[in-house]
Design brief:
This protein is mainly α and about 140 residues long. It contains six helices and two strands; from the N terminus they run H-H-E-E-H-H-H-H.
Length: about 140
């Protein structure tokens, strides 16, 4: 088992060196493609605000640049739901602290998750692609 694990790790190193930037960019594009289909649409501005791009060596940034995107994603007031982000390891308390609002008025928007479910699907696709690359290099 250790020998097989070492083979996989060596394969991953080769893939990481050769394919990491390409795979990360592909994953970011997948996130935008998947999430764009799920974005709640009123005026269409949120849907049009999706972006991704290189952010230094081996890093990409992906997101939506409308200030209200997280409120659509997580909901507000008594409807806040952070489940999708928690499944990726984000802390519910951090999310709530960032997006709970100032309490000026009570607005209860139901969550309409579009981004984090798409991130989870795109990560799964990334892992599948990396696994295939490793298998091809062994």
């Amino acid at each position: 088992d250790l020998a097989r694990l070492n083979q996989k790790l060596e394969g991953l190193k080769r893939v990481a060196k050769d394919q990491l930037s390409t795979q990360l960019t592909k994953t970011a594009a997948d996130v935008i493609d998947l999430s764009t289909d799920r974005v709640p649409v009123d005026t269409g501005k949120l849907k049009q605000s999706g972006y991704f791009g290189a952010k230094g060596k081996g890093k990409v940034e992906v997101g939506y640049n409308k200030a209200y995107a997280p409120y659509q994603e997580f909901g507000t007031g008594r409807y806040i739901d952070t489940k999708e982000a928690r499944l990726l390891g984000f802390s519910a308390s951090d999310i709530k602290r960032l997006f709970e609002g100032k309490g000026v008025r009570q607005v209860n928007l139901k969550p309409q998750p579009f981004f984090f479910p798409s991130v989870r699907i795109a990560f799964k696709k990334l892992l599948d692609r990396l696994d295939n690359e490793i298998k091809q290099n062994l």
